Amino acid sequence: MSRTEATQTLRTRLDIPRWSWGVVVAVLVVVWRWAEVSELAASGPGRTIALQALLTGLLIGGVYGLVAMGLSLIFGVLEIINFAHGAFLTLAMYVTWLIATTTGIDPYLTLLITPVIMFVVGAAVQRVVISPAMGQPLENQLLLTFALAILIENALLLVFAANPRSVRIPWASAAIGPLDFPLRLGGAIIELPRILAFLGGLVIAGGLFAFLNRTRTGTAIRAVGLNPTGAALVGVPVGRIQVMTFGIGTAVAAAAGVLVLPFLTLEPTTGAQFNILSFVIVVLGGLGNVGGALVGGLLIGLTQELGGLLFPGQSKLLPVFIIFIATLFLKPEGLFGGGAE
Amino acid sequence: MLVLDTVDAGYDGLQVLHQVSLEVGTGEVVALIGANGAGKTTTLRTIAGLLAPTSGSVLVDDEPVGGLPGHELVRRGVVMVAENRELFGGLSVRENLFMGAFTRPADDRRDALAEVHDLFPLLAERADQRADTMSGGQQQMLAIGRALMARPRLLLLDEPSMGLAPKLVADVFATIDHIRELGITVLLVEQNAQRTLELADRGYVIESGEVNVSGTGAELLDSDEVRRAYLGM
């Protein structure tokens, strides 16, 4: 029956879904970069390099996802594009570095300290700096957060100078149970801190989800994001929820900062790349879509590392921006749509 | 329970309310009727704390509340159902009702939910449906249900029959009657003056931001002024 029904309507246009152009672009890139692709696929060392890139991209993608979730949450609830998100992440890394080097405690233990400090910092920024600009044109808030980013970066430069710093994790290269770290998998090497960053990112992301979806305060945050007037009408203190949301978004970035510190060198500009990538991820996952940000983070992590192999000698950001521009053209609402649900 | 004494209010330099005074006693259903743009919604927004009066005083239980934020009014038992309902579209019916009881302790919430489900059984059936996928009449039910979840003592209803089919309008007025029986005081804003005045104990007529005429529902229905201006007779 359905066949006859379908033939009754004359279709003079072939409806190609717009995302299919994404597949076309992907195929074109593979053909264009066939030399690199075949080399990676054919030879043994090539396959090892590809596997290494796959694992590195996936693991760092979990952290990217976490950072972007914080940014997406702030956008979804406050409708503020927070350009200082990466700077907050850098600040958190310095806080962690300072605590770890002065007290000698394990950097991972600062997961209990740094995000709390950064929650207070973020909440204070919303309360003092941003909330007076709420309801003003978007570019006012944008410039404010941009200025804040420059301020934080230069303050860090003033205090810590441009010297690269790092923390050491003495137990990163050791045998833990049956596993020998760094882990070797088919020739690829996976460092323990990267695994911990990925797992930690997923756990914190899961915690944030549970908080937003299962608790009274979390539901109130979503309610404020969907309808501030409606939230005020049911007795939600909207201003306080907004302050809290900015604090949570910042604390999430701070947690990511703690997780990446053991395998990155720290400079006042370290957060900048996270900032850029987070924006791409938030657009890819859908503005204000916190779950989409996590998936987007994994995709961008993979794109960055695998794309780096296809365009050797180029910035790893090149393939990321190709994806970014393609998203804006083909699916501007993001892969999973927007909304603070 | 509620007293407005010579209240001025408005938006961004545009004054809408001029010296508005009115009173609502405990247990009453009071109607505020008037034409489009007369200031009915502005009056309710001022009472609900969404708008601060520029002069005059708003008293709830003899305490001044003018200028307090909206959530403080909810804590004092003053809850508003807005004209455009202001639901949380992306949240489920259950979550909308849950948020309605935001200011209430958890055990209170369960009792309130049982009462609301009693009044609107449909909201129990549709607990998992997203609010923005419901019909207009169902959304109005949800908006009133959400307000009742806060256990209000004074319910402010802004044009609850707006945009609803005649059958549903009758349902809304039956619901208001039921809310009165629950012992909740109601201040009702409506354009449907005939029906509203039949239901209300007392009423006020607002015209260009001024309240000049008041009386019992029956008195207003009989007054020539009201009949001519608002009932089209």
Tell me what the structure shows:
The complex is a heterodimer of chains A (about 350) and B (about 230). In chain A, a hairpin with a 2-residue loop joins strand 3 and strand 4. In chain A, helix 5 crosses helix 12 and helix 8 packs across helix 9. Chain A is built from 14 helices and 4 strands. In chain A, the strands form 2 sheets. Chain A has a two-stranded antiparallel sheet with strand order 1-2. In chain A, strands 3-4 form a two-stranded antiparallel ribbon. Chain A is mostly helical and about 350 residues long. The N terminus of chain A is likely disordered. Chain A has a single domain, classed as ABC transporter involved in vitamin B12 uptake, BtuC (Orthogonal Bundle), CATH 1.10.3470. Chain B contains 10 helices and 10 strands. Helix content of chain B is about 40%, strand content about 25%. The longest helix of chain B is centred in the C-terminal third of the chain and has 16 residues. By secondary structure, chain B is of the alpha/beta class. Chain B has a domain of about 120 residues: P-loop containing nucleotide triphosphate hydrolases (Rossmann fold, 3-Layer(aba) Sandwich), CATH 3.40.50. The mean pLDDT of chain B is about 90. In chain B, the strands form 2 sheets. Chain B has a 6-stranded mixed beta sheet with strand order 6-7-8-3-9-10, with helices on both faces. Chains A and B meet through helix 9 and helix 10 of A and helix 2, strand 6 and helix 3 of B.
